[in-house]
Amino acid sequence: EKGTYPHYMLKEIDEQPLVIRRLIQKYQDENGELTIDNEIVQAMNEADRIYIIACGTSYHAGLVGKQFIEKWANIPVEVHIASEFSYNMPLLSEKPLFIYISQSGETADSRAVLVRTKELGYKALTITNVPGSTLSREADYTLLLHAGPEIAVASTKAYTAQLAVLAILAVVTAKAKGLDVTIDLVKELGIVANAMETLCDAKGEMEAIVREYLATTRNCFFIGRAVDFYVCLEGALKLKEISYIQAEGFAGGELKHGTIALIENGTPVIALATQEHVNLSIRGNVKEVVARGANPCIISMKGLETEEDRYVIPAVHPMLTPLVSVVPLQLIAYYAALHRGCDVDKPRNLAKSVTVE
Ligand code: M6R
């Protein structure tokens, strides 16, 4: 039930800190250590390459998950859009493990790949919010998102839960391998949950950003580098699916290779700047678009901020910024849709789970 909330989407955005705290508990053992079914950890460590298969928002979570698994657990990862993988299967490694990420566990495009990889004899792990869903039943292993029912068509809390579960999976796998992972993930996810709360309390700020940048615009660009780029893809998907504003996420460095031609006077460009190693370069990209008339909205992170920034998110561990930087983008999409009189929870032409290929 949505209770006093006007829309499920807003309720689900607000539930994110709680979901992260719940996940920490669910994946903790009696000693407070993060833990994952031994069979799953073993399957991870036996694989010479991991293939993540997903669609939409879950695909965007997979892109961030690749960073966690490669950087912490030191296993190569490929992330594929399920529908493309079906008819364009890459050369597989000798010992692949397939991870299917799906909030609903019912997405037909992902299921088609799962059926195929099972036929080929490969092991599969499903990360889903729905126990007993098709993708969960048909895979060898399941990890649950524990996010509670997600009703709004636009996925919010499932995305951040997917990121948290992927981070836990990566760190537990790394530790089982004896790798020296220095992150205290329980503590850092706690900091993430607090930061999410701060952002959920900043709704007025996000509404103001929408009024200032998106009131009448036909399009909007999101730019970022490194992991911020993946969050930009998600921010753009959110905005387009519920507000019908044409939105695209771009890698900062790619702008000059074509996209910059689209910048006109007043074009809103939302830039994420949460990564220290690319902070200067993304700010350089903002200057480039401003020089062509863009209306820039920089969202940065505490410690990296400058005076020109429109909003500064609280500092969190640099690997975990997507869990937090996505929240303002979810809220921006929400208010843009609301102000345009769109049906926030049930956007046109879309269904909550896509059960056709
Ligand atoms: O249930 P799934 O995670 O498999 O769904 C995948 C996509 O259909 C889904 O994420 C879709 O992109 C959302 N509407 C995005 O908000």
UniProtKB/TrEMBL annotation:
GO MF annotations, alphabetized: carbohydrate derivative binding; glutamine-fructose-6-phosphate transaminase (isomerizing) activity
Active-site residue list: 352 (for fru-6p isomerization activity)
Reactions catalysed: D-fructose 6-phosphate + L-glutamine = D-glucosamine 6-phosphate + L-glutamate
Assigned keywords, A-Z: Aminotransferase, Cytoplasm, Glutamine amidotransferase, Repeat, Transferase
BP GO terms, sorted: carbohydrate metabolic process; fructose 6-phosphate metabolic process; protein N-linked glycosylation; UDP-N-acetylglucosamine metabolic process
E.C. number: 2.6.1.16
Domain of life: Bacteria
A single Gene Ontology CC term: cytosol
Span of domain SIS: 40-179, 209-347
Entry keyword Metal-binding: no
Subcellular location: Cytoplasm
Cited function: Catalyzes the first step in hexosamine metabolism, converting fructose-6P into glucosamine-6P using glutamine as a nitrogen source.
Self-association state and partner proteins as the record states: Homodimer.
Protein name: Glutamine--fructose-6-phosphate aminotransferase [isomerizing]
Species this chain originates from: Thermolongibacillus altinsuensis
Gene responsible for this protein: glmS
Full-sequence range covered: 244 to 600 of 600
